[in-house]
Design goal:
four-stranded antiparallel sheet; alpha+beta; globular; 459 residues; six-stranded mixed sheet; Alpha-Beta Plaits; 22% strand; Aminopeptidase
């Protein structure tokens, strides 16, 4: 097997420039799932990936329509019934690029500076899409086959909460059946390798408040007409007490307790200095409730992501606005049910409605928390691949973010899940996102080893 692995690794080294060109092409698609204006770009990106999978040698390659953006599906099932089947998951959609003026180069222009490739999606997470394709291409080109059976699942709406994926998973349980699921929506950190083994669920909501029939003169109507922005501010200010504890009734009722072992693992994986450096401020908010590591991973949150209403231009415009709105995301932990938390949130916010200010609430995604394997042969396959490539094993860490589809697989299919990421970089979801080019190709090398390791696990 060693010769087989090395021949594939050699192929990836020899075809580095071609692989980089393909990566740049993938990054050129503005596949922003949250903005309907980019729907055609999402479809074009999916179709391009389909073409690449066919070129590489996959079978049954096609897009599958959902109520939202298309899923890219492909398979290579020629390794034999005695070999395991891995379902490889990632997403090809990206976050919006705002604020555009802060970018030093075009977000979809893929500029290379000092060994870093700058583009939206370079790390999150087109690195995983293209890294996997290049690992598979290297194995197929060098050896004519893959060491195990592979199914590909690339979704197009992870960055907008995967709202169409639960019915897709429900309807395609047989198609998605596998021995193990490999989540590639993650990072590759050769200096300090980490693997997120659990994450929080998420609910997104937009609250709209409507008052007078039009903007009113604040001199003529101030003091006699209730201001929708004031009501919005009152709601937002009431979400937490002065210590940071969430005030929505029943919000903490179903929060699961964790074992001492799990709590210690969470603290061991938490990086205080790195978190404060990235934040640019001390992490003191809510510290009286629980330590930083626990507030950031195993406790739920309510965060206002944006507000709008009234005059936003320079100078002053003396009005009482007719409307106001704000967007919220809530991060959930085991054993919180997102549907129950949604209803509690709606009831709480609607309680602020008055005779003259009406409130409507639009719910976006509702996703459950997820947990991946923390021991066993599938995790060991990843760890051994990392150790053989970078000389280190990954530390298991619990994350505060969300990957909605993993919670769906936990509940609906029950397949073991492990993870492997391809991108080392920074500024995910922010201007000037980049991936370190040398590390990206190092991850492809580790990916080749990983698939050979998984091929040796028992079905």
């Amino acid at each position: 097997m060693t010769d087989t692995i090395q021949s594939a690794i050699n192929h990836s080294h020899h075809n580095r420039e071609e692989a980089l060109e393909g990566f740049i092409k993938l990054l050129s698609f503005p596949s922003i799932s949250a903005d309907p204006a980019y729907k055609k770009d999402i479809v074009a990106c999916a179709n391009w990936i389909v073409g690449e999978l066919k070129r590489i040698g996959f079978d049954n390659v096609h897009t599958i329509s959902t109520a939202g953006h298309p899923v890219v599906y492909a398979e290579w099932l020629k390794a034999g019934a005695d070999k395991p089947t891995v379902l490889v998951y990632d997403h090809y959609d990206v976050q919006p690029v705002d604020p555009l003026p802060l970018w030093k180069s075009e977000p979809f222009g893929s500029e290379i500076r000092e060994g870093k490739l700058y583009a939206r999606g370079a790390t999150d997470n087109k690195a995983g899409v293209w890294g996997n394709l290049m690992a598979f291409e290297s194995m197929l080109a060098a050896n004519g086959s893959l060491p195990l059976n592979v199914k590909i699942l690339f979704e197009g709406e992870e960055e907008s909460g995967s709202p169409s994926m639960e019915p897709f998973v429900e309807a395609n349980k047989e198609l998605l059946k596998a021995d193990v699921m490999l989540n590639c929506d993650g990072d590759f950190e050769p200096k300090r390798p980490e693997m997120g083994y659990a994450g929080r669920g998420i609910i997104s909501a937009e609250v709209k408040l409507t008052g007078p029939k039009a903007d009113l003169h604040s001199g003529g109507f101030g003091g006699v007409v209730q201001n929708p922005l004031h009501v919005a501010g009152k709601i937002i200010g009431s979400f937490h007490d002065n210590e940071g504890r969430i005030q929505i009734p029943g919000y903490y009722d179903a929060v699961a307790t964790v074992s001492d072992f799990e709590r210690q693992r969470i603290h061991d994986g938490w990086q205080d200095e790195r978190m404060e450096k990235d934040a640019g401020v001390p992490l003191v908010w809510g510290r009286s409730i629980a330590p930083d590591a626990e507030r950031g991973t195993i406790l739920p949150t309510v965060e206002v992501n944006g507000m709008s209403g009234g005059y936003q231009g320079p100078g002053t415009k003396t009005i009482i606005p007719a409307e106001a709105s704000f967007k919220v995301t809530m991060r959930l932990v085991p054993d919180q049910n997102p549907h129950e938390i949604t209803q509690a949130f709606i009831a709480y916010v609607k309680s602020f409605e008055t005779e003259t200010v009406k409130i409507s609430i639009e719910i976006g995604e509702e996703a459950w928390p997820f947990v991946m394997v923390t021991e066993g042969p599938y995790l060991e396959a990843v760890q051994t691949a990392l150790e053989s490539t970078i000389g280190k094993r990954a530390k298991l860490v619990r994350g505060g973010g969300s990957i909605p589809i993993l919670g769906m697989f936990n509940r609906l299919i029950g397949v073991p899940i492990t993870g492997f990421g391809y991108g080392e970089g920074e500024n995910i979801h922010s201007p000037n996102e980049y991936v370190v080019i040398d590390s990206f190709f190092q991850a492809i090398e580790a990916g080749i080893r990983l698939y050979h390791n998984l091929a040796e696990t028992k079905k």
